Amino acid sequence: MDLVVRAVVIFAVIWVVTRVVGRRELSTMEPFDLILLVVIGDLVQQGVTQSDYSLTGAIVVILTIALLTVFMSYVSFRVPRLRPVLEGEPLVLIEDGRIIERNLRRERLTVDELRAEARMNDIDDLADVRFAVLETNGRISFLTA
């Protein structure tokens, strides 16, 4: 039972950290970020299982985290009012060619990063963009006129 409690606490901490870090940072990982995630994974494993290296302990932790993930998905599906809290909401970055600076600051994005994303989508000028939306998965969707 101790393993389940620790797994639940670690799951909650990871969920909060990923919400605080922001969508954009998670979708554009650098090599250092990947290494950091591996290190965090090892630290989480040590925090959850402590000195329990048994196969049973590992299975209990894996099943607990998997069940929590499915539960969060189910709650998000069944309770639409909680969906913005659990998954986030898309955020409009450009509307009718006008950059919404407040939303860029909120997600710690620069205009140069927005221009780079537009170029990757074959868009030359941000003035041609009707809407640019930062999706909940961290990608930016562009709708042109």
Ranges with pLDDT <50 over ≥5 residues?
none
**How many runs of DSSP E, i.e. beta strands?**
4
Give the integer mean of the pLDDT values.
84
Spatial strand order of the main sheet:
2-1-3-4
Backbone shape? elongated
Strand content: 5-15%
Could you explain the architecture of this structure?
The chain is 61% helix and 12% strand. It has seven helices and four strands, in the order H-H-H-H-H-E-E-H-H-E-E. It has two domains: 2-87, no CATH class; 91-144, CRO Repressor (2-Layer Sandwich). Helix 1 runs antiparallel to helix 3 (31-49) and helix 1 (2-21) crosses helix 4. It is of the alpha+beta class. It has helices at 2-21, 23-27, 31-49, 55-78, 83-87, 101-106, 111-120, and strands at residues 91-95, 98-99, 129-134, 140-144. The mean pLDDT is 84. A four-stranded antiparallel beta sheet has the order 2-1-3-4.
What is this structure, in a nutshell?
The chain has 145 residues and is an alpha+beta fold. It is 61% helix and 12% strand.
